[in-house]
Each structure stands twice: as structure tokens, then as C-alpha cells.
Design goal:
The chain is an all-alpha fold. It has one domain (3-188). Helix content is 79%, strand content 0%. It has helices at 3-17, 20-45, 54-61, 63-83, 86-91, 99-126, 134-161, 165-182, 197-214, 217-230.
Amino acid sequence: MSAGAVALYRRRVAIAVNRPIAIVSQVLSPVLWILVVGPALAAAFGGFARDLDYFTYAAIGQIVFIIPFSAMFAGLVVITDRDFGILRELLVAPIRRVTIPLANMAAVLTVAMGQLALIVVLAAARGAHLHSSPGRLVLALAAAALLSIATYGLAELLAYRITQPQIFGTLIPAIGATPYLLCGAIYPIATLPDGGPARVRGPHRRARAAGVQSGDAELVSSVVAAPAAVS
């Protein structure tokens, strides 16, 4: 990695954590969701499958909520850099232009991995039963990294094209919440309205979602059977 890339990376990380209010903003969401929202969801919806540890299911699912939101909010830095002339200075600096978004992505990914680690630690401390194989762990980390990079890439692209931060702000909840609502993080995917093909693949998707989060075959079976039991 070139010196310019390292400097850009350190700058973006510093923007995210160099002040107490910045650190609080990065930590508050995981703390709130795991210690408050997670138990509330478990109390409200945990009865749909008695053999399912719904708090563990929902707590790990918060990763898919927090990472895209953080990545989308990071796109606001690009707008600020453009409006204050920082981006113009970077474009004429003696570095390759591709270095700028790559360094930004690396910084956003660093923050995302920190939030992921915090979620796992808080969930385990709160009583979540976390166990998985090394292969599943690597797959989960790769999926989280890909989600963070892809979401931030979209955020940066939109930030270059949208001139007003207010308009960009309206896209943050729409894009940030979509993966969380559609990935099966709070309910089995097969319970979503569909036209047929998704229902055929529903048990397989539910098993994969529950299996990645728990690695427990019995838990997977309970999730697959839950919609039928409710109906």
C-alpha cells in the first residue's frame, strides 16, 4: 500500500473515531440494538418457535442492519469533501485516483469489523449462544465485509452524483434497512409475500440463514418448521 493510500485511510478512520462524539455514535447503535432492541424482539416474537433461541437469532441479525447504515452514513464524508474543496485537492495530488475510493472503503470496512466484533461480544455477554465452525465463521466475515464494501461503494457513487446532502440523507434509511428487512434477520424469509419461486426455495433459505447464525441443526429444523406451526 502506498504512502498516499495509508494517509487517506488514516484520515477516514480518524474522521470516524477521532472525537468522543464520533466514538459514541459508532458504538451506540450496537449497544442499543443488542442490549435493548434484541431482548425486546425476543420477548415480542420469540414464541413463534419454542425451540428457537430467538435472542441469538435476532442479535446476530443486527449485523445486517448496522453495517449498511454505517456504510451509507460514511458517504456523507464524500459530499463534505467535495463541497469544501478537499476532493479537488485529492484529485490533483500525486496519487492514483483509484487510491481514493479504495482507501475510503478500507477505512469503512475497518469500522464495520469493529462494530461486528462489538455486536458479537455484547450478544455473548447478554446470553446469546454463539457456536460455529471455522468455515462458517470465515464465510460470515467474508459476507459482512462484502456487504460493507458493496453498500459503501453505492454510497460513494451516489455521493458523487447527488449535489445536496438532504437528498442523500433520504436514501440512507431506504438503502440501509433493505438488506436487514429482506435477509431473514428477524423472521424466516418464506414468510415474506412472494409469487411462488421464493416459497419453493424458502426452507432452503431459512435453513441457510439460521445455520449461518447458529450452526445448530436442531435450531435450523425449528426455524424451517416455524411458519407451519404458526399457521
